Amino acid sequence: MSEQLAVGLLGYGTVGSGVAQIIHEHQEKLQHQIGCEVQVTKALVSDMGKEREVPSGHIEFTTDADDVINDPKIDVVVEVMGSIEQARGYILQALNNHKHVVTANKDLMALHGTELLQVANDKRCDLFYEASVAGGIPILRSLTEGLASDQIQKVMGIVNGTTNYILTKMANDNRSYDDVLAEAQELGYAEADPTADVEGYDAARKVAILATLSFSMNIDLDDVCVKGISNVTEEDLAYSKQLGYTMKLIGLANRTEDQVEVSVQPALLPNEHPLASVKDEFNAAYVYGEAVGETMFYGPGAGKLPTATAVVSDLVEVMKNMRLGVNGNSAVLPQYEKNLKADEDIFAKYFIRLHARDLPGTFSSLTSLFSELDVSLEKILQLPVPESDVAEIIIVTHNASKSAYKSMLKQLNELDVVVEVKSSYRVEGEEA
Amino acid sequence: MSEQLAVGLLGYGTVGSGVAQIIHEHQEKLQHQIGCEVQVTKALVSDMGKEREVPSGHIEFTTDADDVINDPKIDVVVEVMGSIEQARGYILQALNNHKHVVTANKDLMALHGTELLQVANDKRCDLFYEASVAGGIPILRSLTEGLASDQIQKVMGIVNGTTNYILTKMANDNRSYDDVLAEAQELGYAEADPTADVEGYDAARKVAILATLSFSMNIDLDDVCVKGISNVTEEDLAYSKQLGYTMKLIGLANRTEDQVEVSVQPALLPNEHPLASVKDEFNAAYVYGEAVGETMFYGPGAGKLPTATAVVSDLVEVMKNMRLGVNGNSAVLPQYEKNLKADEDIFAKYFIRLHARDLPGTFSSLTSLFSELDVSLEKILQLPVPESDVAEIIIVTHNASKSAYKSMLKQLNELDVVVEVKSSYRVEGEEA
């Protein structure tokens, strides 16, 4: 093996230039860890004419990806260009050329992770992707290391900064979803088309990656049951608060024996749950392992230096493995058959808010419905709705199966005394 | 290098037997990570006759430490026996025999860490001690890895489970310190002599280790300014709560340019601070790095499997380094001269609770005293003390130097209108 390790970048935007900067500025520390020199030698860009910051004069820029992925002198390819199909093609070619790969591309890993990891494994190459989930938090490495001596039972993640920012502002300032979204767009925290964030699709990709790794099952994006935050109202947040809950968009991966559930939804957490205090655009992952118990990792989910730092930590790992001759061992390829829970086996507590006629007998119609469905109630809050003959009723159930929950919603809507079921949410992070 | 790495244990109690168990049960995964077999070959015990769980038949027990530390076939010595002087002697001898060392001994590392790391460095050996601070949280590794591409500005840790349990119960159930301590002792959460925990000495050892690593300065135990929780009252907790704060025993390591402050004290955090939700016997470390920003790690601070897992993660690191030929590089030896802040340079907000005569003019005497000391006030709460002519007054200041704070306390006690200054605490985790 040569005494210099060469890195080729696919993409030289915010993250790519951050990676080059960190490798340049921390060269000595990196050499101490790895045992040899590390250099970024080439970078793929789309426009040669663009002015860019280059930390040292040695990076050769090119607009031809082959210059990077077919260069026999390059040991590791770092993909930070985004896109799905093109990135997939480049990474496959790099792996086929026996190059190790580090990527920050969550869309790619959520859709094609298992295929790419399989190819990497066949070629005895490393494929690392720490930066794809919660950039500033070493969550994938912690899960992988944890797995070496533990069994992961549950992961709950706040893995989308935009939605956490919106929910935090709505709750703190009693403002509407539309109002806060518009502000977030102005401030650059939300995109002009916010669909991927607010409908939970971005979080779903990350939770698919987390679940695949945690349970060693090939969890597809289609396996993730997704609900976003665009229907959350100020009233929902106000009543949640009154009952001691904080609403978060939670990516959930949950195992009971050999069956798993993977979902993304706005869920209510008790205020004292560690995830409840994760504010604004921060990310966090709460992990329950059989041996170690509860742990949580909290930090920035994005940003140039946090993300580039995650990429560099992957690079260090690849290079240590190269020198150890153990590349291709660290990838946790799905080992088990996917075994998803049916609705009958998914248990949770539910928060249900409805408007009912404020008449004698309303309450007993409601409670007898719950009792028929064998769902017991933990909390009930009833308030008059001003200037109407309607009562606002909030119910928090004890554990109920998802199928019982669905029947419950249907039958509540059919009850004469119920004007409208306004909203319902899962309650997580409490004992049953 | 041989194709089997041999580990010798000094101590085979809870943690030692946990290490042997994990190495046995996860042998295949460990081999995948390291590239060769790992075995515990010998263990030092004090009583040969005692019955003990042994995961495989291959461990040779001995009552003579030399059998372990002078065995040329042993590559790594794991010290999990406790004690200070004896452990120090064994570790020095092991290092002099060119063996790598993993220890879980916080007392030893806080008192002799710099000396031992220096010897390890001279011998090009690794000396790792992840399990010495917050067993279930990979905080030392995160700091070390973070340091490779970041500068740590601040660490705030809840690093003592006993005191966190006591403060949590006092606050939640409105109970007295003595009452909760007695219960904690009954339940085994506090020792018969609780001094080391409740007076903050245990936390001080851990924060000395954290500060030494974070700032690369040789922070001695004597450099840590320590205050425990034995004088905390129910009233303090009730008024803190009323003002939106949660009290925690905080180990603080804080840098401003090249000057540092290291302390342990009960401090008030805003309820929405991530550390405020760390309950019961859990530990957590909040880290502020220049590049990555805010991160927090949360988990169990002790326990057989969490601590043994931390020891095994150190072992994996040592063994990877052996195969890489980079042992002795990872140790972060103090590189900078210690430069401690004077009281004039330590700034914080303070919560002060006092009893004053309920007379006209009381308030203006108080406020003119603060104004003379150039300390401005953020919050004031005044309540009558039932059946007395005394008022309960709680003041939260804006940032003040520690020297101004000391003058303030002295002069408040000398004021005619003040009956007694009941208590005072730092307020941390807010903007100035």
UniProtKB/TrEMBL annotation, chains A, B:
Domain ACT span(s) in chain numbering: 351-426
Catalytic reaction annotation: L-homoserine + NADP(+) = L-aspartate 4-semialdehyde + NADPH + H(+)
Binding-site positions, NADPH: 106
GO MF: homoserine dehydrogenase activity; metal ion binding; NADP binding
A biological process from GO: threonine biosynthetic process
InterPro entries in the cross-refs: ACT-like_dom_sf, ACT_dom, Asp/hSer_DH_NAD-bd, HDH, HDH_cat, HDH_CS, NAD(P)-bd_dom_sf
Domain of life: Bacteria
Sequence positions that bind NADP(+): 10-17
Positions that bind L-homoserine: 191
Alphabetically ordered keywords of this record: Amino-acid biosynthesis, Metal-binding, Methionine biosynthesis, NAD, NADP, Oxidoreductase, Sodium, Threonine biosynthesis
Metabolic or biological pathway, per its Swiss-Prot or TrEMBL entry: Amino-acid biosynthesis; L-methionine biosynthesis via de novo pathway; L-homoserine from L-aspartate: step 3/3; Amino-acid biosynthesis; L-threonine biosynthesis; L-threonine from L-aspartate: step 3/5
EC annotation from Swiss-Prot or TrEMBL: 1.1.1.3
Chain ranges passing through the membrane: none
Active site: 206 (proton donor)
Annotated Pfam families: ACT (PF01842), Homoserine_dh (PF00742), NAD_binding_3 (PF03447)
Cofactor needs: a metal cation
Family indicated by similarity: Belongs to the homoserine dehydrogenase family.
Name listed for the protein in its UniProt record: Homoserine dehydrogenase
Species this chain originates from: Texcoconibacillus texcoconensis
